[in-house]
Amino acid sequence: MEMQDRTVIVTGGASGIGRATALLLAREGARVFIGDIDEAGGRTTAAQAASEGLAVEFLPLDLTQPDNITDFAAAVQARVELVDGLVNGAGWDRIQPFMENPPDMWDRLIAINLVGAVRLSRAVLPPMIAAQQGKIVNISSDAGRVGSMGETVYAAAKGGIIAFTKSLAREMARYRININCVCPGPTDTPLFQGQPERMREALTRAIPFRRIAQPEEIADAVMFFLSRRSDYITGQVLSVSGGLTMVD
Questions:
Q1: What's residue 192's pLDDT?
Q2: Quick one: CA dihedral 93, 103, 161, 116, positive or negative?
Q3: Residue 247 above 70 pLDDT?
Q4: Is 28 part of any domain?
Q5: Is 82 helix (H, G, I), strand (E, B) or coil?
Q6: Which residues are CB-neighbours of 81 under 8 A, at least 6 positions away?
Q7: Measured between alpha carbons, how far is 34 from 143 in angstroms, rounded to an integer?
Q8: Is residue 85 part of a domain?
């Protein structure tokens, strides 16, 4: 098993890509701590894992609250000697034209999709630096690479995650810590299913493979960046979009 005896934090583990990632990592031998504001969903993920004999523990996490982020990181670090990996997978969006966005929506989009990941990374990095090892995978979005109508501030935050990944990778390379980024295209998550049917159909037609991704397909890319197969890869951005966004 590729993740045997490794400990990984996965935010957004209550559903969608985060849940698929947490379960995949646990099935590959990792001990996983999931953080999410959705306590019911988080406990459901942990219960599903327990039914398979997997080591997944849920801890509440609100990425809009700095003190809660600090407490979450401390709670994990109190349970394990070293966190080997962090997946910044939590995200939130609302499709709406930019000129109709209320400013408090901007604040929430940026807090969850960008600043929360920055704060949590900062909280878990010191032990990784001391150990001279660790991997962080940030889940951005192809909206952050090419833009997306109705998701302007979301795309800005996800673009920030890409730049954060590359800059942090440069700083952390001296400590042998890998920082990489996965950019999903349209994926079959609760967020996607909540969009109008016409939009979902249009996106599906635009993808060369003529289907949207399953969360497990994004999880495979995340696990690659966490596994030893990517030990010489850092600062990279990988789109998993069925060919929708073929960018340099």
A1: 76
A2: negative
A3: no
A4: yes
A5: coil
A6: none
A7: 25
A8: yes
Query: 158 lies in which domain range?
Result: 7-237
Domain-located, residue 1: no
Catalytic residue positions?
154
The answer to whether the beta carbons of residues 44 and 111 sit under 8 Å apart is no
Q: How far is CA 13 from CA 3, 50, 92, 212, in A?
A: 17, 14, 13, 20
Buried b (16+ CB within 10 A) or exposed e, 161-180: bbebbbebbeebeeeebbbb
Q: What's the pTM?
A: 0.94
- Taking only the tens place, the pLDDT of each residue in 179-236 is 999 999 888 887 777 777 877 888 889 888 989 999 999 999 999 999 999 999 999 9
The pairing of strands 177-184 and 134-139 is parallel
Encoded tokens for 205: 């037609």
pLDDT tens-place string over residues 96-153:
999 999 999 999 999 999 999 999 999 999 999 999 999 999 999 999 998 888 899 9
Give the total number of structural domains in the chain: 1
Q: How far apart are the C-alpha atoms of 124 and 83, rounded to whole Å?
A: 7
Residue at 155 is within a domain? yes
> What is the side-by-side order of every strand in the sheet holding 56-60?
56-60, 31-36, 7-11, 85-88, 134-139, 177-184, 237-240
Q: Give start and end residues of each alpha helix (H) in the chain.
A: 16-27, 39-51, 66-79, 103-110, 116-131, 143-146, 152-172, 190-193, 197-206, 215-226
CATH number, domain with residue 117: 3.40.50.720
Residue 83: per-residue pLDDT: 97
- Which secondary structure element, helix H or strand E, spans residue 88, and what is its range? strand 85-88
